Amino acid sequence: MRSTRLPSVRSAVRLRPGIRWLYALVATPVVTEFIERGAFPILPREWITEVVAGLVIAALVRRIHIEHLAVLALARTDALTGLLNRRAFDEAVAGECARARRARQALCLIYLDVDGFKQVNDRQGHQVGDQVLQAVATALGEAARARVDRSFRLGGDEFALLLPGSTALQATAVLARVQARCQLEGAVWHVDALRLSAGIVELLAGEGDGAFVQRADAAMYRQKKARR
Predict the structure, then answer these.
(1) What kind and span of H or E run contains 153?
(2) Residues 159 and 140 sit within 8 Å (Cβ to Cβ)
(3) How far is CA 188 from CA 99, 193, 195, in A?
(4) Which pLDDT tens digit goes with each residue over 42-53?
(5) Has residue 109 got a pLDDT over 80?
(6) At what angle do helices 86-103 and 209-227 cross, to 10 degrees?
(7) Spatial distance between the Cα atoms of 77 and 87, rounded to a whole number of angstroms
(8) Per-residue pLDDT tens over the stretch 7-35
(9) Minimal CA–CA distance to 75: which of 23, 134, 16?
(10) Residue 182: alpha-carbon gap to chain centroid
(11) How far is residue 4's CA from residue 11's CA, in Å, rounded to a whole number?
(12) In angstroms, what CA-CA distances link 141 with 55, 136, 200?
């Protein structure tokens, strides 16, 4: 099973501008010199001193910036699976729905739930249950388009895939790949049927973000109920 990883700091840059304004502090040594003396440095050695001080400040600000972005990424990441979490999901749905309406493009959402997950936990223990969740996360990551689709763990054994520019038919093909991988993984832990109940919805014209998510959730539960 491929190991899951936390989002990189590079990917976190897309989340927020962060604290990049601190880079303005690089000019502090020169500005301070001007305030104190009423003039900018004149001699080469004075400029060298100011430039070195500015570079030191720039290095410190860069470190703070990277650590800040890493904290933001962790706040939106599920620790067990490495997928984005519910908080990131809510933000992504709002952003992608707005983009889809503006560009008049398709947007699909897949809601997924692991069938019989409680029984796996009860019979084989929580460690195996965690491995099952990680296997589902891996399947979602392999089926999604890199830097386009996004996969989430919403909590417990519920997951979601957000597919910008995809129709319901294309989303069905993605789901088939996820289910095929999960069925193969199920044999590793002697699970009779590591299956997923899923609901696929395509954003309707004029539909709100909340209604979009509710339709996906309802479609998933209809399938789960039909299998009982």
Answers:
(1) strand 150-155
(2) yes
(3) 40, 11, 14
(4) 656 665 666 666
(5) yes
(6) 120
(7) 9
(8) 443 444 343 444 555 555 555 655 565 56
(9) 16
(10) 21
(11) 15
(12) 40, 9, 17
